[in-house]
Write a structure and sequence with these properties.
Pfam families: HATPase_c (PF02518), PAS_8 (PF13188), PAS_9 (PF13426). The chain is α+β, with helices and mostly antiparallel strands. The protein has 16 helices and 24 strands. The chain has four domains: 102 residues, Beta-Lactamase (2-Layer Sandwich); 98 residues, Beta-Lactamase; 207 residues, no CATH class; 134 residues, Histidine kinase-like ATPase, C-terminal domain (Heat Shock Protein 90, 2-Layer Sandwich), CATH 3.30.565.10. A hairpin with a 2-residue loop joins strand 10 and strand 11.
C-alpha cells in the first residue's frame, strides 16, 4: 500500500499490518522512530519487536466480526539498537484484512510517571515507618491521614481515625476551640508536652510539634509527636530507685562518706556523723578536708593512692576528732567513675573498731597476767588439768570470736560496700540513659544488688548466733520432723541417733533442705541415712537432683559461692565445726547430691 508520510495524518509513526500482525508497510517516520529500514520491517510480524503490551495482550490480533474496529494500547518496542521505547498505539480497521496503527513516543512520559510513583512510594514508606506519630488534619478539623506509629500509640486503626474529627485523639480539637493553629492563627509550635487520647479511654503522654502545610493547594496541620510513656515510666522508676538508694545510704549501720577529688566531703550518712561525733553533716563538710587535715596524714596518703590505683584501698588508724572523740577506725575506699571512665569521686566505708581494739588490748593484758601466774604458781596435776581445760576453752572461744569478728567485718566492709558501689554505678547509668530497654536492665541489676545487701545482713545475724549457746545433744529424727515440707518427701532412716552439736544444728538441715529444693526442685526426693564406722558415725543427706561437679565439691562450702546468697553451705560447715563434726559432698554428678556428715566417736549416741 502506497501513502505519503504526513505528520498530521500519521503522527510520529504509522504502519499497516494484517489481522495477525504481519507488517504490510511502514511510514518513514516509523522507520526513523525505530531505527529499522522499510526492507527490515517488510518481512516481520510486529510481535517480533514488541517486548510488552499493556492491556489487551491480543492487541495485534484482529478477528473479523469479533474484534472491535478500533483499539488503543501502550506497547514497549525494541529498537534496532536494542534500546526500548514506549509507544501509545491506536489501531483502526481499514479493510477486512488491513489494520492501520498510529504510534506516539511516550517514553519520557512513562519515565516521569514511574519517577512520580517511586517518589510517592518512598514518601509513603517514610510517613508510615517514621518512629514518631504523624497526623494530617484538615481545616474542617477532620483527620486526613495517620501513620502506623499513631495507630500504635493510640490503639486505633487507620480506618477508625481517617475522616473523624481530630477530637477523637487530640484534647485541643474542634470542641475545645484551643487549637494553636486553627484557632490562634499560629503557623507552628514545637516541644509541647501534652497527651493523646487513646482507644481504651486513657491518655498517653507525648511531645508534640506541629506546622501549617499546603497539600494540593489546601491548608493542613502536620502534627508529629513522640511517645513519652516509656520515658515517663523510666523517670518514675529512676525516682523510686533514687529513693531506695537514699534509704539504703541513710539507714546503713556502717558510716559512708562521698569525697571528691579535692578531698572535700560531698555527702555523709547518719552513721558516719555519729562515729565522728559531729553536730551535723554540714559542719563536718565545712571543717574537714581529707587532703589537708593535720590529723589525717595517713588518710590523705591513702586517698591519693586510691585516686591513682583502680582498686579498693583498706587501712586502719587511730584518730582524735576535732570534737574530742578518740577513735580507732577501719577505712575501705573505692573509686567512682564518670562516663569517660575517669575517677569522679571516692566512696569511703568507715567502721568504728574502737571498742574491739579496746577488748583486744584488755584480752592481751589478761593473757599476760595468766602467763605470769602460770610461771609463779605451782599447781597439782588435777588443778593443772582443770586450768588447762579452762584456758583451752577460753582460747577456743577467743579464736571463734576473732574468726566471727573478722568474717563479719569483711562482709560489712567489702561485700556491702561493693554492692553499694554497684548500686550507685547502675543508678548513674540509668539516670543518663534515654533508652527504656537499657534503663530496665540497670533497674533490674540495682534490685539484685539491694537483695544481695539484704541477704548479707541476714547472714551476719545468723552468724552472730554461732557458738553463743553451749552445744547439746540433738536427736536427728526430732530435728528433721520440725523441717518437714508438705511438698517434699523426706525418708528418715536414722532411727534414734543423737549427735552432740551447736544449738544451731536445726539451721544445718534447714539449709540442706533449701539447697535440695533449689537444685532438685519442688519434686525432690530426699533420703537421710546413717551408719557407724571406725571413724565415728556417718549421716548422709541425699537428693535426686543433678548433683555437684567434682571440681566444685569443695568450693561450694566457701563463703560467697553459690547461685543464691553463697552463705548457706558455708554456715553449715561453720556450725558443725563447733563440735569437730565434718561435712563434704560425695555424690556422683548427674545422679544427685550426697552430703556426708562425719561425727566423731564421742559426739554421737543411740
Amino acid at each position: 500500500m502506497e501513502f505519503t508520510d504526513e505528520p498530521d495524518i500519521y503522527g510520529e509513526g504509522t504502519f499497516f499490518a494484517d489481522n495477525t500482525g504481519n507488517i504490510i508497510s511502514v511510514s518513514e517516520s516509523f522507520c526513523n522512530l525505530t531505527g529499522y529500514s522499510h526492507e527490515e520491517l517488510a518481512d516481520k510480524n510486529i510481535s517480533d519487536i514488541i517486548t510488552r503490551i499493556l492491556g489487551d495482550e491480543y492487541f495485534f490480533n484482529f478477528k473479523t466480526g469479533i474484534s472491535p474496529d478500533k483499539k488503543r494500547s501502550d506497547i514497549l518496542l525494541r529498537k534496532k539498537d536494542s534500546s526500548e521505547i514506549w509507544l501509545r498505539t491506536n489501531a483502526y480497521r481499514m479493510s477486512e484484512c488491513c489494520i492501520r496503527y498510529i504510534t506516539t513516543d511516550i517514553t519520557d512520559l512513562k519515565e516521569k510517571k514511574e519517577e512520580l510513583i517511586n517518589s510517592k512510594n518512598i514518601l509513603e514508606t517514610i510517613f508510615d515507618n517514621i518512629p514518631c506519630g504523624m497526623v494530617i488534619i484538615g481545616e474542617d478539623y477532620r483527620i486526613h491521614s495517620v501513620n502506623k506509629k499513631t495507630c500504635e500509640i493510640t490503639g486505633y486503626s487507620s480506618e477508625e481515625l481517617t475522616g473523624e474529627f481530630c477530637d477523637i485523639i487530640c484534647p485541643k480539637g474542634k470542641e475545645s476551640k484551643e487549637c494553636p493553629i486553627w484557632e490562634k492563627n499560629k503557623k507552628s509550635f514545637d516541644g509541647m508536652e501534652t497527651a493523646v487520647k487513646c482507644k481504651g479511654g486513657y491518655r498517653n503522654p507525648v511531645l508534640k510539634n506541629a506546622e501549617l502545610v499546603q497539600l494540593d493547594s489546601r491548608n493542613y496541620i502536620l502534627e508529629i509527636f513522640q511517645d513519652l510513656s516509656v520515658l515517663k515510666e523510666a523517670e518514675n522508676r529512676l525516682r523510686r530507685s533514687e529513693i531506695r538508694y537514699r534509704e539504703l545510704f541513710q539507714n546503713s549501720p556502717t558510716g559512708i562518706l562521698l569525697i571528691d577529688r579535692d578531698g572535700e566531703i560531698i555527702d555523709m550518712n547518719p552513721a558516719a556523723v555519729k562515729i565522728y561525733g559531729s553536730p551535723s553533716p554540714e559542719e563536718t563538710r565545712s571543717r574537714i578536708n581529707v587532703l589537708n587535715h593535720p590529723q589525717l596524714k595517713k588518710t590523705a596518703e591513702k586517698f591519693r593512692e586510691c585516686l591513682s590505683e583502680d582498686k579498693i584501698i583498706s587501712y586502719e588508724e587511730y584518730y582524735t576528732t576535732i570534737w574530742g572523740r578518740k577513735l580507732y577506725l577501719r577505712y575501705d575506699a573505692s573509686q567512682n567513675h564518670d562516663e569517660f571512665n575517669t575517677i569522679r569521686d571516692v566512696t569511703v566505708n568507715v567502721q568504728d573498731l574502737t571498742d574491739r581494739k579496746k577488748d583486744e588490748t584488755e584480752l592481751e593484758e589478761k593473757n599476760e597476767i595468766l602467763r605470769e601466774l602460770n610461771e609463779k604458781l605451782t599447781l597439782t596435776e588435777e588443778e593443772m588439768i582443770e586450768q588447762l581445760y579452762e584456758i583451752t576453752e577460753m582460747q577456743k572461744a577467743l579464736t571463734l570470736s576473732n574468726k566471727k569478728l573478722n568474717i563479719l567485718s569483711a562482709i560489712t566492709r567489702h561485700d556491702i560496700l561493693n554492692q553499694i558501689t554497684v548500686l550507685r554505678g547502675y543508678l548513674e547509668l540509668a539516670s543518663e540513659s534515654k533508652d527504656y530497654a537499657s534503663s530496665k536492665i540497670f533497674f533490674d541489676k540495682m534490685d539484685s544488688a539491694a537483695e544481695r545487701i539484704q541477704n548479707q545482713i541476714e547472714f551476719t545475724g545468723d552468724y552472730e548466733e554461732l557458738g553463743i549457746s553451749e552445744p547439746k545433744w540433738h536427736k536427728i529424727s526430732d530435728v528433721i520432723r520440725k523441717l518437714r515440707n508438705k511438698k517434699i518427701a523426706v525418708k528418715n532412716r536414722c532411727g534414734e541417733l543423737e549427735i552432740f552439736a551447736d544449738s544451731m544444728l536445726e539451721k544445718v538441715f534447714y539449709n540442706l533442705m533449701d539447697n535440695s529444693i533449689r537444685y532438685a526442685g519442688e519434686s525432690a526426693e530426699i533420703t537421710l541415712t546413717c551408719k557407724i564406722c571406725s571413724s565415728g558415725a556417718k549421716v548422709y543427706w541425699m537428693d535426686n537432683g543433678t548433683g555437684v561437679p567434682n571440681e566444685e565439691k569443695e568450693k561450694i562450702f566457701q563463703r560467697g559461692v553459690g547461685k543464691n546468697t553463697g552463705f548457706g553451705l558455708f554456715l553449715i560447715r561453720e556450725i558443725l565445726s563447733i563440735t569437730d563434726i565434718e561435712i563434704q559432698e560425695t555424690g556422683v554428678y548427674g545422679e544427685g547430691a550426697c552430703f556426708e556428715i562425719t561425727v566423731p566417736k564421742d559426739k554421737y549416741r543411740w
